[in-house]
Amino acid sequence: MLETSPTLLTIAKWGGFIFLGYYGFRSFKSVFYPHALEMDKKKVKPSIKKTVFLTLAFSLLNPHTYLDTVVLLGSVSSQFSDAEQPSFALGACFASFVWFFSLGYGARFLGPLFTKPKAWQVLDFIVGCMMWIIALAIVL
């Protein structure tokens, strides 16, 4: 759709630039207002029912799930032939599994680090830089 409409492409480009620029600004602003992750000292184990419900809610109610899956992966997969698309789909599923598995375990191991406000300041600065770099790459 974007390739056929120069006006829509321009709107999407500058919309993405503004969106990423704003979130980059918010990240840089957070550098000056440090916060920390408050860890719950008591080890309360949630029920299986609550864990499954929250997992489904975070997965199915997240709009990025559909944007990434349908729009992004759908458009990327269209460049492959019919014979190559199943391999692409399996590779995307495997990459997604590895990514989210790593996020889960990484969060567990990095949780204690992020109880320190300095760690958040560094992360916010890196995120701000990444957002602004991507925003500039969109318009240049």
What does this structure look like?
The chain is mostly helical and 140 residues long. The protein has a domain at 1-39 and 117-140. 74% of the residues lie in helices and 0% in strands. Helix 1 runs antiparallel to helix 5. The model has no long low-confidence stretch (mean pLDDT 86).
Summarize the structure.
The protein is mostly helical and 140 residues long. The protein has 5 helices and no strands. It has a domain at 1-39 and 117-140.
- The percent range for helix content is over 70%
Would you list the SSEs in sequence order as H and E? HHHHH
Span of the ends, CA to CA: 21 Å
Strand content: under 5%
Question: Tally of extended strands?
Answer: 0
The oligomeric state of the chains shown is single chain
* Low confidence ranges: none
Mean pLDDT: 86
Radius of gyration: 19 Å
> What is the makeup of the main sheet?
none
Protein structure class? mainly alpha
Given the C-alpha coordinates, what overall shape results? flat
Number of helical stretches of at least 4 residues:
5
Write the SSE topology.
Elements: H1 6-31, H2 48-60, H3 63-77, H4 85-110, H5 117-139
Helix pairs in contact: 1-5
Quick tags:
mainly alpha, flat, 140 residues
